[in-house]
Amino acid sequence: MINLRRHAVIFALAAIAALLAPSAAAAKAETEDVLVVSNNWAGTADLVDPGTFERLERINVIPDAEERIAENYRAAIRRLA
User: Fold this and answer.
1) b/e per residue, 56-74, with b = 16+ CB within 10 A?
2) In angstroms, what CA-CA distances link 74 with 40, 60, 64, 65?
3) What is the pLDDT of residues 2-49, one digit of tens each?
4) Mapping DSSP to helix (H, G, I), strand (E, B) and coil, where does residue 31 land?
5) Which pLDDT score is estimated for 64?
6) Cystine design at 62: which of 3, 27, 33, 43 (Cβ 3.0–4.6 Å)?
7) How far is CA 71 from CA 22, 44, 45, 61, 64, in A?
8) How far is CA 17 from CA 14, 66, 68, in A?
9) 58, 60, 39: which is closest to 47 by C-alpha?
10) Rounded distance, CA 68 to CA 77, Å?
11) pLDDT score at 62
12) Rounded to an integer, what distance in angstroms lies between the CA atom of residue 40 and that of residue 76?
């Protein structure tokens, strides 16, 4: 009878541990595959779903793009002068 109780307690503890431990499926759901497509002229990168090719998000990878464009323009004008 003691052996049966011991097995029941061990089984209950194992069941509780299994419920409390994060599952592999839950951990996998936190990430997803994306395709990163960059646009050099716009200074952006699009995150695209590789299965549907739907754009998920657009990221500005050059925060000071307008300033950089103006700087390049002024440098070109200086070279021509």
Assistant:
1) eeeeeeeeeeeeeeeeeee
2) 20, 23, 15, 14
3) 566 665 656 555 656 666 666 655 656 678 899 999 988 888 899 999
4) coil
5) 80
6) 43
7) 51, 18, 22, 17, 11
8) 5, 55, 56
9) 58
10) 14
11) 79
12) 19
Which residue is associated with the tokens 């200086």? 78
User: What is residue 45's predicted lDDT score, i.e. its pLDDT?
Assistant: 93
Amino acid letter, 58: R
Query: How far apart (Å, rounded) are the C-alpha atoms in residues 46 and 11?
Result: 50
Q: What is the identity of the amino acid at 33?
A: D
Q: How high is the pLDDT of residue 42?
A: 84
Amino acid (one-letter) located at 52: T
